[in-house]
Write a structure and sequence with these properties.
The protein is α/β, with parallel strands linked by helices and 327 residues long. 44% of the residues lie in helices and 16% in strands.
């Protein structure tokens, strides 16, 4: 089979095609948002109340979208995975339990490969949410909740290639995931548990993940002689020492810069409280590391103490953040 490639097609024509597709799909998403009603709330309730996982399934292009929806649900705190409808008919139905809920995608609602999964959910009273364009289809009629896509033409000029319909399914899957996320108050800390790698994981690093604590923490008493302070700073190699009072609270900080500013013959005769910078900038351990870097840059400092209830529990250096990829 040969495909005729039209010669002389201009870049302007290509751009016009692209704009037509994007405009059509944008209009479809607007129509989809306006069409949402009680059925969407019922679908969220079904997925939220299922004690097991969310099983997402679909065939062809709908199957590719279903995989992405399952991945998004899983990454935002709702355990989910994709089951291929063809494989389901040959044993993978055993992956679906009575505690699960199923989301089935089919633009026509008549995808024959979904038949065994649909029948399985009906036999074992497993909640079934459908995404389809046809309210009278077999899938929509069998489902507990049917999310009906508005009747928008495919962006393909022949109206055949799944384009607009799959875009709406993808967006509707995102809407379900975000609604479930917000319902359970899923936080950035929760998000980090499922995204430890890559740039996203780096953005979610907390100060407590990078700080030096325990025996690495350079601390001295307010009355400690400067000879002792210098030994502590040298041993801990963080370029600073925290000065604590009798109550254990952080009273000040001594940095390499403080030593240079007080460099004179009687330096070693001074006490830590004579040299320290009082009321230094501090951060809590649950602060995002990126925010700590912003503070250090704004204050032109290279390290900051981490405190809880005024008591130092760690110190984070800008180099620690840079090594972790936080900038």
């Amino acid at each position: 089979m040969t495909i005729d490639v039209r010669a002389g097609r201009s870049a302007a024509s290509d751009i016009a095609s692209a704009r037509r597709v994007l405009t059509t799909e944008a209009e479809a998403l607007t129509a989809l948002a306006q069409s949402l009603g009680d059925d969407f709330g019922q679908a969220v309730e079904r997925l939220a109340s299922a004690p097991g996982r969310v099983i997402v399934t679909g065939m062809g292009k709908s199957g590719h979208v279903a995989r992405k929806i399952a991945a998004t649900l899983a990454s935002t705190g709702r355990p989910a995975f994709f089951v291929h409808p063809g494989e389901a008919s040959h044993g993978d139905l055993g992956m679906i339990t009575a505690d699960d809920a199923v989301v089935a995608l089919s633009n026509s609602g008549e995808t024959s490969e979904l038949g065994d999964i649909v029948a399985y959910t009906r036999r074992f009273a497993i909640p079934l949410v459908a995404m389809t364009s046809r309210p009278g289809s077999a899938l929509a009629q069998a489902a507990d909740v049917a999310l009906i896509l508005p009747p928008i033409a495919e962006a393909c000029p022949m109206g055949l290639a799944p384009t607009t319909s799959t875009t709406m399914m993808l967006a509707l899957g995102d809407a379900l995931a975000v609604a479930l996320l917000e319902r359970k108050n899923f936080s950035a800390a929760d998000f980090k548990v499922f995204h430890p790698g890559g740039k996203l994981g780096t953005q979610l690093l907390k100060v407590g993940d990078l700080m030096h604590g325990g025996d690495s923490l350079p601390l001295v008493g307010s009355g400690a002689p400067m000879a002792e302070v210098i030994l502590v700073m040298t041993a801990k190699s963080l370029g600073c020492a925290g000065v604590v009072g009798t109550d254990g609270a952080l009273a000040g900080i001594i940095t390499d810069g403080d030593l240079r500013r007080h460099m004179r013959a009687d330096l070693l005769a001074l006490a830590a409280c004579d040299v320290m910078t009082k009321n230094p900038k501090t951060v809590p351990p649950n602060m995002l590391a990126a925010e700590a870097v912003r503070i250090m840059n704004a204050k032109s400092i290279t390290s900051v103490f981490v405190v809880e209830d005024r008591v130092p529990v760690g110190v984070v250096h800008v180099h620690d953040c840079l090594r972790a990829g936080v900038a």
